[in-house]
Amino acid sequence: MGFVSSLLWAFWYILPAYVANASPVLVGGGRPIDGGRHWRDGRRVFGDGKTWRGFIGGVSAGTLVGVIQYFITPGFYGTLKTALMLAFLLSFGALLGDLVGSFFKRRANLPRGAPAIGLDQLGFLISALALAYPVKTLDSGQIIFLLVVSPFIHWGANYFAYRMGWKSVPW
Ligand code: CTP
Ligand code: MG
Ligand code: K
């Protein structure tokens, strides 16, 4: 595989995780996952920015993208079942990593929406890669590439969402 095509495949592989991470800003809202409860430090467990609708909607959107990807490049996945499993684990991993990130942000006394550089841009990605690892993984060069470019994509996507009026802060 050529260098450029290996990087493009890395994007193709991780796409469900990106979609899962980005879609809650549009589909989220309603009941927060922590149900409004507080941790023993007196602060919210996750906060109002982590909702069931965002979580389930994000996992669904990412998984659906994976199914569409299978029909575009079946050879990359082998079987529909593999594509489905991979997309689900990438999407679930992304939202789980995002949730864990918010847990640590609240423990650090950061209010909902406050930026946490590193955690915000890479937490979802590392968690997605880890959960999907047993089904299909990338080589180390591709993983390093995603770790380097994802923060820029994350910032770009958030800035776009801010300019569209979908969220109140550009990060
Ligand atoms: N969102 C959601 N459910 C999730 C994740 C995100 O509803 N599980 C929605 C919320 O409206 C959230 C927005 O997507 O405000 C942007 O997500 P994110 O930046 O991850 O949340 P923050 O508001 O920044 O909250 P936190 O400080 O906890 O990261
Ligand atoms: Mg945020
Ligand atoms: K986040």
From TrEMBL:
The chain crosses the membrane at residues 6-30, 51-72, 84-104, 116-135, 141-162. It catalyses: 2,3-bis-O-(geranylgeranyl)-sn-glycerol 1-phosphate + CTP + H(+) = CDP-2,3-bis-O-(geranylgeranyl)-sn-glycerol + diphosphate. Coiled coil: none annotated. Pathway: Membrane lipid metabolism; glycerophospholipid metabolism. GO terms for molecular function: CDP-2,3-bis-(O-geranylgeranyl)-sn-glycerol synthase activity. It is found in: Cell membrane. The keyword Transmembrane applies. Keywords: Cell membrane, Lipid biosynthesis, Lipid metabolism, Magnesium, Membrane, Nucleotidyltransferase, Phospholipid biosynthesis, Phospholipid metabolism, Transferase, Transmembrane, Transmembrane helix. The keyword Calcium does not apply. It is a multi-pass membrane protein. InterPro entries: CarS, CarS_archaea. GO terms for biological process: glycerophospholipid biosynthetic process. Its cofactor is Mg(2+). Its EC number is 2.7.7.67. Belongs to the CDP-archaeol synthase family. Catalyzes the formation of CDP-2,3-bis-(O-geranylgeranyl)-sn-glycerol (CDP-archaeol) from 2,3-bis-(O-geranylgeranyl)-sn-glycerol 1-phosphate (DGGGP) and CTP. This reaction is the third ether-bond-formation step in the biosynthesis of archaeal membrane lipids. PANTHER family: CDP-ARCHAEOL SYNTHASE. This is CDP-archaeol synthase. It comes from Thermococcus camini.
